[in-house]
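Q: I have two molecules that I believe assemble together. Could you output structure tokens for the complex as a whole instead of separate predictions?
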Amino acid sequence: MKPKILLIEDNDQNRYMATFLLEKHGYEIMPAVDGPTGIEMAARVLPCLILLDIQLPMMDGYAVARELRRNPVLDGIPIVAVTSFAMMGDREKALAAGCDGYLEKPINPETFVADIEQYLRPSGK
Amino acid sequence: MDPALLPALQAAQETSREGLTDFAMEIQVQAPNRQGRWLQVCARPRRAEDGQVVWDGVATDITVRKQAEQASLEAERRLADIIEFLPDATFVIDQDKRVVAWNRGCELMTGVKKESILGQSDYAYAEPFFGERRRILIDLLDLPAAELEAGYKYILRKGDMIYAESFIPRLNQGCGAHLWGAAAPLYDRSGQRCGAIEVIRDVTDQMRVEQALRESELKHRMLFETAGDAILLMRGDQFIDCNARSLSLFGCGRERIVGAPPYAFSPPRQRDGRDSTEKAREKIQLALTEGPQFFEWEHCRLDRTPFMAEVSLNRLDLEGETVVQAIVRDITQRKHSEELIRQLNRDLQGHAAELERRVEERTAELAEARNRAEAADRLKSAFLATMSHELRTPLNSIIGFTGILLQGLAGPLNPEQNKQLDMVRGSARHLLALINDVLDISKIEAGQLEVRREPFDLRASIDKVVAVVKPLAEKKGLTVHAALGPEIHIWKSDQRRVEQILINLLNNAIKFTERGGIRLEARQESDALRISVSDTGIGILKEDLEKLFQPFRQIDTGLARHHEGTGLGLAICRRLADLLGGQVNAESESGKGSTFTLVLPRYQE
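A: Yes, here they are, computed for all two components at once.
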């Protein structure tokens, strides 16, 4: 069974690109277009990793991360923030909200998958 | 008869006999009643028949006449004695202008002894005084002589006496003497003129004292008259004297002031509402009993024009008489000046208050402006954050899909497609760099870029940045060599920013170098870290060195088109170095390459 990655991303093109890249590398992508949907799916699917966009409509990525971390069932699932917020303190805010990693957009397609995989738990795949 | 007279008698008798001349003689005889008698004997000799000479004559008793003559002589001697002891120089002349008396006073005054002058005539008495024989005061008794009188300082006839004053230079051992003289004619018992007397007094000392006194008085009078303040004397409450200034002050003549009371030159009431007459009397009384009084007083001139005065009242005791001296100073001008100063002060206070109000207003405006500026600044930051995000999102697609395509993940590409997509990716990356740099410099200039001060492995950082730029250098056939001192290890600063600076410097070096290599040197000095990046590139003219660090100022090398960049790199480097407490400097020799040096201070724990 392919490892599942939950992708919470509202931008269609970004979601498509990440999906394309990760599927090419043998992952199954569970896409969610907003925070509440993502949170619901995470509990149901229990992915091996969650890719979380920060700038989301209604509920931003920090709030989503905090909500995910509140659920003990999801404890241990790495969350990697992917954001084009490149202002001072973004990384810290993401980590403080419960994320394990932080990638800046635009992503580098050559290194993107490798960057993500370093957050995967050895047991995950 | 007095036996002593006998020889004379015999001699006279013999003479008469010899020459048969008349015999005349006054003879004192002792009469039986013991009273001496004087006989005048006159006899004519004739030769008798016997040849004897006999005298026929008469003896007259002249005792009474002789006694009268004696008394007169006595009186004259007594008079001479009296004259002698008169304290003033006194001399007497007879009708023939012979000196008959010359007293001690005359001797002292002139130095001429009486022995040498008594009996002399022909104006001999003038010589001791004037050095020549001439007519003097005593001679004026007999004749009016205008030209002689003109020689005296002062001359006065009173009855048959004459008084005069003169200055005689040769007296007093040549120092001169002021003489006061009086001459009077002398008459005998029958009322016949028999001579004259002159009494002379040396008044030189007296004159000097009087002169000094006059001068002193004049001086004080002048002080009084020319004083700038009105000075008046009051007896009771009436003015008895005043100086010239009083006249101009009160605007009237002396006759209007003397005899008038001070309240005649005052309005009915003073400014405190008190009756002028009553208050003036009270002040005068206080000056007499309590001592000097100083006060302000409203006076007025004769024409009732009021003026403010400062008055001082002093009690003066003048030769047993008590008067009050009033010194009145017109202070209208001073009062006016004071009022002016008060007005100026009020104005000044008004201006100060106005100024304060304006400052407050302006401060409020500035605070408002600052608030607006701060709001605008926050807006700008928000705008930048949004822009950054909004620009990156499409770039994410462009870079991402280009990368996917170039990796062949979406299917194989022919060489031309590969080449063109590579160009798209290059442009996209450049655009991204531009966005990042603009964002950075905006944050720095808005003061929003915070830097850390944390220890990090500097050696690892340098290795990392060298590794990052190495592929680019190798593409151009350039070497990159890092020479790190053995002391380079842990450093305390902002790792990310130090790396950003070094990458910028290395990229620049590579960009502007066509042949040769890049050398990075790191040395730690006593209290600073020095990392220099040298290249063998085109170099920079001295005058262009500073322009390098200004935003968007890529030096026009004529090669500009080859050297793509944001134009912000060095500006960012310098500002970041500033934020880290250090600096970035450039040295270069055109054509031989450049060296950029980052100097960072050591932070104390």
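A: One point stands out. Residues 558-562 of chain B have pLDDT under 50 and may be disordered.
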